[in-house]
Amino acid sequence: MQNIPLFDAHCDTASKALAKSQGLRRNALHTDLTRGGAYAPYAQVFAVFADGGLPDVTGRCEAILSFLEAELAKNADIVALCGSAEEIQNAAAAKKIAALISVEGAEQLGCSTARLAEVYRRGVRIVNPCWNHNNALCGAAIVWRQDSAGAWGIGSPGGGLTAQGREFIRAAQGLGVAVDVSHMSEAAFWDACEIAQKPLLASHSNSKALCGHPRNLTDAQFCAIAEMGGAVGINLVADFLEESGAADPGAVLRHIGHFLSLSGEKTVCLGGDLDGTNQLPRGFGGVESYAALYELLLEEDYGEGLVRDIFYNNLLSYFERAL
Ligand SMILES: [Zn+2]
Questions:
Q1: What pLDDT score does 145 carry?
Q2: 94 Cα to the center of ligand 1, angstroms
Q3: How far is the CA of 124 from the centre of ligand 1 (A)?
Q4: Is the pLDDT reported for residue 53 higher than 90?
Q5: In the structure, what pLDDT confidence band is assigned to residue 2 with cuts at 50, 70 and 90?
Q6: How far is the CA of 105 from the centre of ligand 1 (A)?
């Protein structure tokens, strides 16, 4: 895989590795630095994710961030924490993996811009204002809800940005933290488009035209992101690829093809949500399976330049504009 580059915009591996007492260098999860490092260059956004619906979310966020810092330090021979596009390029030139850190769900930061500035100093460069809960900043695309019998299900999408949410997004973009709209309600998405001073990222969201899941993007949302110079990462979670919840690699190709048909050649990238799900497409085991996707895209006759843009260059260019 020495000739295949890979830049993935979202994985939940750090949280899962900590929960399962595993490391980042080699593990039994969807991705690790050894398997990912087979791509050249390889860059990965590692999400800090703690469910805001559980107690002490800020404490658990701190534990995951500290774990990630320790793992990156321990593996400094092969990976470098990056805070800018230039640092990502420097890591690639030094034949190291580039790691970026996101915080998925701002309730982990108490929805506080002061706390965001603190974690910025520790390397965080991407933030999702919400996860699957409405919070003080905005409504969520999916809202987990318990019915009277105690069973969990998906409630109606949340509302737009609050005044605090607008302030938070302005502060994030002012700091040089990319705002990730995956998980935001559609109302909050359009509010964010109105106030955005820098392009927005949807790190792990697919096409709603192909799969009507509330976490996916309408064509209008995709085009708005494309027009502002944003990026959209293709998610490998089967539920977001096929309404049946069972997907094959062809479904991934269809979502990519649909976004390309909306003039998304410089917008589409990858954001597999590895370790955020147990339902990858048939035949996908983890990060090593991106190589097969690369070959499938070449077989679709997209041309190697476009496939390399999707796999790496589009996300790198996005961070040049957004950080
Ligand atoms: Zn997510």
A1: 81
A2: 31
A3: 16
A4: no
A5: low
A6: 9
What is the per-residue DSSP string for 254-299?
HHHHHHHHTT-TTTEEE---BTS-S-PPTT--SGGGHHHHHHHHHH
CA of 174 to the centre of ligand 1 (A): 24
Model-wide pTM > 0.90? yes
Residue that is written with structure tokens 């003039």 in the block: 263
Ligand 1 centroid distance, CA of 303 (Å): 30
273 Cα to the center of ligand 1, angstroms: 7
Total residue length of the chain = 323
- CA 48, CA 62: separation in Å to the nearest integer? 9
Distance 16 CA to ligand 1 centre (A): 13
- What are the structural domains, with CATH classification, of the chain? 6-322 (3.20.20.140)
Give the Cα separation of 289 and 69 in Å (integer).
27
Nearest to 240 by CA among 220, 212, 282: 212
Mean pLDDT of the chain: 96
What's the CA-to-centroid distance between 179 and ligand 1, angstroms?
14
